[in-house]
Input
Amino acid sequence: MTGGFYILRSPTLGQPEAEGLAVTDFLPLDPVVLADAPLCPVCGKPVGMLPWLPPHRVQLEFWANEPGDIAFGTGDDLLLSERFRQMYEQVGLVGLSGFDSVEVVRTKRYGKRKGIKPSGNYYLVRIARSRAAVDDKASELVRPKGRYCEECGGGDPEWAKRIVLRENTWSGEDIFYARGLPGRIMTSERYRDFHVENKINNGILIDASEYGFDWRFGEGYKPG
Output
């Protein structure tokens, strides 16, 4: 199952992929309250980061000339703009929940950019954990030795040549985390069309069949 799925991730500053995008990040501010990590029901290992509980206070960081429709953080959460929320709800996509209001305590601008302010509210969203499961063999994916679990994969992969989902496991979400691939946001082709047609101004989408990585060399490196 290779066609029709994408990896959504933050652009890499200084790379051609970031050109023309409203690169925006966020940092949680104190008090930061975290819940217990979600656990695999089979092996008991964590399958995601510690969920962030209210209050949601943030610093927004702008690396371009306008605020992004998406702001990326360091965990499993995303911040989405008011514009994104309205369009998402209009088209009926599936996979995001919460839309909890965020207090933007301060903003930070880089370079010579001045006067950038959020255009409306931002919201914290939770991304669905799909029944979609990574096909390790078809993905040529390598996991730490002795840690495989049929349900969750057993830990963060070390590297992969591509991302292929097992046949008949996807449960219909448009934006989701797949079993066996923690920390990497996947999307459907329907989300990809939404992203392009509405000119969502931050985040890049990589065809899953072309997305490779190797933890030794960083995100985006594709093993030969």
Q: What stands out?
A: The chain has one domain: 5-214. Residues 5-214 form one domain. The radius of gyration is 17 Å. Residues 55 and 215 are 33 Å apart (CA to CA).
